[in-house]
Amino acid sequence: MLFEDVLGQDHIKNHLTQSVDNGRIPHAQLFVGNEGTGALPMALAYAQYVLCSNTGGDNTTGNEACNVKFKNFSHPDLHFAFPVTTSSKAKSHPVSSHYLEEWRQLLKEQPYGNLFDWYKLLGVDNKQGQIGVDEAHDIVKSLTLKSYEGGYKVMLIWMAEKMNTACANKLLKLIEEPPNKTIFILIAEDDEQIINTIRSRCQILHFPPLAEEVIKDALIKKYSLELPVATKIAHQSNGNYNKACDLVYQDSEDLQFEEWFVFWIRSAFKAKGNKAAILDLISWSEDIAKTGRETQKQFLHFCLDFFRQALMLNYNATDLVYIEPKSPKFKLENFAPYVHGNNVLEISDELQDAIYHIERNGNSKIILTDLSIKLTRLLHKKP
Question: What is the mean pLDDT of residues 364-375?
Fold first, then answer.
């Protein structure tokens, strides 16, 4: 991965390349950024810069053979760890090394992809992945060996917040005092979920959302879109390049999520004066419960975002509104007055509670039915 292939974030690129050029490479760094901001591509470009002895901010000036290996992400001194779960390929004790082929496919096709894309590629949408203690054993084992090319070794841990407590505790000493010329790069969307003892040992870099201009130019270059189309998609993506690419293909899961959301909201409104509408809500809960847990969590995060956007519109913060519903006869401006200061915090709490319980393997049908019934009351609250 070349720095020139990483969109925007020029201040971070300059910081990383200058630190290497000056011989001041931190042994543990934490890259924190929301989906689609480029933390993973930046980590790959940085690892290439270090391992291939590149200089001057350019990823092609160092060891040519080394740079070639990075085209397939197969450099022997670059190690990966990422969330995995059991599948037909690894029926017990799954670790990242079982899924390197799929991982390299994701890096080539969707370097800006999210956890949902990764689970979809693995075909394990109904299971929740983690970075477990078996992975920690593998990491310790691989980093105690000498580097293949005699230089640095880089351990890249993607979605580091998915490390369970046993894994995090096992790696703690290694991250604090790694072997000579060993670099840890942890990548996370929510660093609050990483235990403090690990977080405090890392130098943290925060990745802001990408500018609309950067996303627009990238879409025009990659997909040859017309300027008005690229501008509209860049605005709708809210700084998330992965979402922008999905919108180009009309392949975004948000389209399906919006359909579910609109049916849910309409049924919740009807339920106040029509007891039969409760059956629609129960039926809706059953349908969503049949999908995988990751899909359910992703959908509930989408709902949180939708309510937040409605609240912005209700309070005339139109510059911050980027959602444009595709469903016929559903207008955000008509829905917005029902989301206000008197109910939005409760709605947010209920959605986050539902995500929490689904994450902990609660019965999805019961959780979603309970959420639906509570929503009918909250939507009818007066401002």
Answer: 93
